[in-house]
Design goal:
With 381 residues, this protein is α+β, with helices and mostly antiparallel strands. It has a domain at 123-344: Cytochrome p450, CATH 1.10.630. Helix content is 61%, strand content 8%. It contains 15 helices and 7 strands. The strands form 2 sheets. The protein has a 5-stranded mixed β-sheet with strand order 1-2-7-4-3. Strands 5-6 form a two-stranded antiparallel ribbon. α8 (168-185) packs antiparallel against α12. The radius of gyration is 25 Å and the shape is globular. Residues 1-21 form the signal peptide.
Length: 381
């Protein structure tokens, strides 16, 4: 009986290994029949090489480049992808946007951020949404609203860090999200931040996952978190409409229906833009802030010079006076530190584009025709 059980188990393992090998081979053959594709591997059907990509991070791309060169194919985040790490090809593609190429973000990101977010729309709609968002960071808005709001928030927030050991990665993430939330919804951020933060963290994880809507997956948790966030924001919008009070924050500007406002958005469009603003600034600001602290810790002379510049500015002002635009313009060394941190700690190291038609990518650089529905991942390493 035991021998029979072992024999059946071995047989099942052999069948499983054979099936896995056949599936991998079938997926490779399926894509190898498409003419003009660069070398590379496609992994499993549906899943592709997403698991390796998410686990290994940058090392996955470096290993593939070592095997196949600076231009190779893969299958990540639910979509066949052509990865380019060639500066000339990347420059050509970016200079020819609109000619068969549009932003091509992962389906999970498009689903969770909303169908009206600026990354999901093209043409005249994209231009309209872009204008609405740019109106939120006009010089007048920065001078009279954003800068004072950020100054007050950072002072208050950093007071809670005094005399304790903190997790700088966690704290910078909280700071980035709460600061953005404060700028968007003003004083009401305090009442919704407790329910908002954990849902937002789930949303972020869901955007970089396979778009498989099954209980327990990051995608399902991210999508459920989006529903919770939409509910919070919709209640806030309804409350503001009923009160008919004017609010000098980003949400107030987006909800403005006066003739002076060129960009009038629906409630769904406003909610998607708010989620997009929070999402786009969350990881970039938090990681850059964390790395700036790390670099300053490693270079005490730079930290001392930075401190001297800020103490000189504070010496000209009363303790309660906020920073203004003139103070920012005088921070020459601070600006250099920011630029150097951005150079060393590149957060956004690539962009995604997708093809809308069969096309040839600059025959002099690359004799390659890309099939419709392939996505480009341009890496700047």
């Amino acid at each position: 009986m035991a021998v029979l059980f072992v024999a059946v188990l071995v047989l099942l393992l052999l069948v499983l290994c054979l099936s896995s090998a056949l599936l991998l081979r079938w997926n490779e053959v399926r894509f190898s029949k498409k003419k003009g594709l660069p070398p590379g591997t496609m992994g499993w059907p549906i899943f592709g090489e997403t698991t390796e990509f998410l686990k290994q991070g940058p090392n996955f791309m470096k290993n593939q480049r070592a095997r196949y060169g600076s231009f190779f194919k893969s299958h990540i985040l639910g979509c066949p992808t052509v990865v380019s790490m060639d500066p000339d090809v990347n420059r050509y593609i970016l200079m020819n946007e609109g000619k068969g190429l549009v932003p091509g973000y992962p389906q999970s990101m498009l689903d969770i951020l909303g169908k009206c977010n600026i990354a999901a729309v093209h043409g005249s709609t994209h231009k309209y949404m872009r204008g609405a968002l740019l109106s939120l960071i006009s010089p007048t808005m920065i001078r009279h609203h954003l800068l004072p709001t950020i100054d007050h928030f950072i002072r208050t927030h950093l007071c809670n860090w005094d005399s304790q050991i903190i997790d700088i990665q966690l704290k910078t993430k909280e700071m980035a999200l709460l600061s953005s939330l404060k700028q968007i919804v003003g004083p009401e951020s305090g009442s919704i931040s407790g329910a908002f933060m954990p849902e937002f963290f789930k949303l972020v994880l869901g955007t970089l996952s396979l778009p498989i809507d099954v209980p327990g997956t990051s995608y399902r948790r991210g999508f459920q978190a989006r529903k919770s966030i939409v509910s919070i924001l919709r209640q806030l919008i309804v409350k503001r409409k009923e009160s008919k009070e004017s609010h000098l924050d980003m949400l107030g500007y987006l909800m403005n229906t006066e003739e002076s406002n060129r960009y009038k958005l629906s409630d769904d469009e406003i909610i998607d833009q708010v989620i997009t603003i929070l999402y786009s600034g969350y990881e970039t600001v938090s990681t850059t802030s964390m790395m700036a602290i790390k670099y300053l810790h490693d270079h005490p002379k730079v930290l001392q010079q930075l401190r001297e510049e800020h103490l000189a500015i504070r010496a000209r002002k009363k303790p309660e006076d906020p920073l203004d635009m003139d103070d920012l313009k005088s921070m020459r060394f601070t600006r250099a530190v920011i630029f150097e941190t951005s150079r060393l700690a590149t957060i956004v190291n690539g962009v995604l584009r997708k093809t809308t038609q069969e096309m040839e990518i600059n025959g002099e650089l690359l004799l390659f025709k890309c099939n419709v529905n392939f996505r480009f991942y341009l890496l700047f390493w």
